[in-house]
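Incident log, structure service

09:12 report received: a user says their structure output differs between two submissions of the same chain.
09:20 pulled the input from the user's history:
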Amino acid sequence: MLRGVEIQEPRSVIGRSSQESIQSGVVHGMGSLVDGVVARIERELGAEATVLATGTLAELMRRFCDRIDHVEPWLTLRGLRLIFEKNRA
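09:34 re-ran on a clean worker, output below:
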């Protein structure tokens, strides 16, 4: 019975309402998930990885992920533009 919640920076880790709790869970949970997956990938590779965050929430998530090195929210659209320009001729 919970309604949709806008994903945005929560005021604190502990939410004071259902909306704040969902926001905190999504943002802090995803940040921890990214950090954990990157650590496992690096262990498997035996080397450090460069982490690039993409998408409209990339800048927000940068503040909650210790492992993000670069943010490029429009990576897919830039790539499509390059492909279009290359094939236009």
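09:41 both user submissions now match this output. Likely a transient worker issue. Closing.
09:42 reviewer note: The longest helix spans residues 18-45. The chain has a mean pLDDT of 93.
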